[in-house]
Amino acid sequence: MAIKFGRPIEMRDAPRRQTALASSPLDLAFRPRRNRKAEWARRLVRENVLTTNDLIWPIFVVDGNNTRTPVASMPGVERLTVDQVVRDAERAMKLDIPCIALFPYTEASLRDETGSEALNTKNLVCQSVRAIKQEFPELGVLCDVALDPFTSHGHDGLIEDGKILNDETVAVLVRQALTQAEAGCDVIAPSDMMDGRVGAIRQKLDQHGFQKVAIVSYAAKFASGFYGPFREAAESTPAFGDRRTYQMDPANGREAMHEMELDLEEGADMLMVKPAMPYLDLVRQARDRFPVPIGAYQVSGEFSMIMAAVERGWLDYERIMMESLTSIRRAGADFILTYFARDASRLLG
Q: How far from 9 is each of 2, 14, 20, 79, CA to CA, in Å?
């Protein structure tokens, strides 16, 4: 015996009821399934479309020559020497990916308390930018502005008595941004979350004739647990404490909007939400609220979770990759930093 709406129904009644339903079509004014009946129909009414134009490909740079070193926690992702970065830049061009983002893996011997290697005009990032621009000047290059890949303690700023100094750190970040612009970088992306750094960087770039260099601010960068694999790839795990005094509390949405407003007032050209999928509500709010391009970073933890499930046969790689990226676009992101950029572009091409 089955129960329906609290009333017992004898199973022997079921066949007769099904026949009755089949012989009496529902009187429906709307049948949304008509628009899903075939692939051509689904394509015709599709609300959001992902293209290669929406993707930025993050690439890790390491010292050496002709070497590609796998990142254990990020299947398919590698640390590349500068010559190999240029080869991936060529792949980006062929796949019609408009922009790549560079992140350095700095040797321990080059790290110090103040992150001075960030200001070296011959550091890995600057070498890579010059090499890329020499061969592929039309490819966009985004450079991360932060000190954590260069400091011995792994934090994004200068430290005094165990505390991160804001204004003193901004002064170094300004010099780092100028160094990258002089190397040929197209987009400066401060991800440090120090107060006032966007305005200070914009002023310095303009003073030195780099008015065309754009700033995409990691305006809403959260103190997230999804960064673990990246920190292995770039070896940027803090030696002590955490980053909660400068990165945002994951519980705060209104504060994220306020951070974005401040960065726009300081001269940001584009805004970023990081991570992406756990914060799609904020991507949507930003898209509805601000007239500038909104980006989202599908971070290493998001990537690695999907890859771990794929390796175990629990998820279909291509389907989940494209679904995850489309969801970020649907939320309102104009561009997406994603480690899936290469493979997604192959499917989209």
A: 5, 8, 16, 64
Residues 6 or more apart in contact with residue 10 via CB below 8 angstroms: 1
pLDDT digits (tens, 9 = 90+) for 24-35: 889 999 999 999
- Ranges of each domain in the chain: 54-348
54-348 falls under which CATH superfamily? Aldolase class I (3.20.20.70)
Do 345 and 297 touch, CB atoms closer than 8 A? no
- The pLDDT assigned to 17 comes to 52
Supply 259's token pair: 């951070």
274 catalytic residue (yes or no):
yes
Is pLDDT above 90 for 5? no
| CA gap 194, 197 in Å, rounded | 6
Of 37, 122, 133, 221, the catalytic one is: 221
pLDDT digits (tens, 9 = 90+) for 300-347: 999 999 999 999 999 999 999 999 999 999 999 999 999 999 999 999
Catalytic residue from among 37, 163, 212, 274:
274
4 belongs to the catalytic site: no
pTM of the shown model: 0.90
Q: What are the beta bridge partners of residue 143?
A: 102, 188
Is the CB of residue 336 less than 8 Å from the CB of residue 295? Answer: yes
Q: Alpha-carbon distance 110 to 117, whole Å? A: 6
